[in-house]
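debug: dumping io for the single-chain case to check the tokenizer round-trip. Nothing else runs in this session.
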Amino acid sequence: MKTATNKKSDNPPKSEGYKAGLAMRKKVLGDDYVERSFANADDLNMPFQELATEFAWGKVWTRPGLTLKERSLSTLSMCIALNRPAEIKIHLRGAVRNGVSREELRELILHSFLYCGGPAALDAYKAVRDELPLIEAAEKAAKKLATTAKTKPAKTKPAKSPAKASTKSTAKAKSTSKIKA
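debug: decoded output
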């Protein structure tokens, strides 16, 4: 029996839809998640990664009409309805990145209880409870790092202009010659 390998696709898509999808997928889920998804893909999964990137992320997530926040809430709603806790955790990161608040998540889960049932809502709550603190900590660290990088000036001495350097060396040479004389 042949097992899956880490062989990448023979013809990786390079269409504009794929490029737009890759950019959107990274924007919503984060570079690290997307890069890991591709790095861990084998010959069975790589076509799925490419198709999801080109179609879902490149053709649907990039459409006008809904904000990224609205798309995230919609996606989470469907994942709750389908009782897919693993997908909830993945899309929760995107929802936070797209501006969905803790209060909105709580209300979404409470609302899903009415239409999806208690077990699906409870599983969603557990997924959010487990994942949200990790996501919030990572987002806080990333913001702190970005703020630190923007506010700390580089520790370099300003370069002397050639004219000033030349004037100083000429003046120094003249004063030295007067002392010797």
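debug: round-trip ok. The CA atoms of residues 30 and 121 lie 26 Å apart.
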